[in-house]
Amino acid sequence: MANPDLEELLNTLVPFAQQMLSEHGEFYPFGASIDAPGELACVAGDTGEEQPDSKEVIDLLVRGFREEAKRGRIRAAAIC
Predict the structure, then answer these.
(1) What is the DSSP string of 26-41?
(2) What's the CA gap between 30 and 78, in Å, rounded?
(3) Contact partners, residue 36, CB within 8 Å, separation at least 6
(4) Full-prediction pTM beyond 0.85?
(5) What's the pLDDT tens digit per position in 30-78?
(6) Phi, psi of 42 (to 5 degrees)
(7) Are 34 and 6 in contact (CB under 8 A)?
(8) Which residue from 1, 9, 3 is spatially nearest to 79, judged by alpha carbons?
(9) CB atoms within 10 A of CB 14
């Protein structure tokens, strides 16, 4: 049986990615997390640049999710 948190993350991220591809043909990396009580939050990484490199955005999201996980604030996260 799949993890319910991961299913919720995928069910949130994938449709938005599909929408962005359909409407714009591309998207910048984005993510979502589930906090300790179970609330889902969608997030984007802002590097301060208008057109940032995707790897920089992913690195920023990973650092943020790792920090939140180390502090026990989130229990699951995903990046698309």
Answers:
(1) ----EEEEEETTS-EE
(2) 9
(3) 72, 73, 74, 75
(4) yes
(5) 999 999 999 999 999 888 888 889 999 999 999 999 999 999 999 999 9
(6) -90, 140
(7) no
(8) 9
(9) 12
**What is the DSSP secondary structure assignment for residue 36, as one 8-state letter?**
T
Q: Which residues contact 21 (CB under 8 A, 6 or more apart)?
A: 27
Taking only the tens place, the pLDDT of each residue in 9-21 is: 999 999 999 999 9
Measured CA to CA in angstroms, residue 76 lies from 2, 19, 55 at distances of 13, 23, 21
3-state secondary structure of 51: coil
Identify the three-state secondary structure at position 26: coil
Residue with tokens 């929408």: 19
Helix or strand run (H / E) with residue 43: strand 40-44
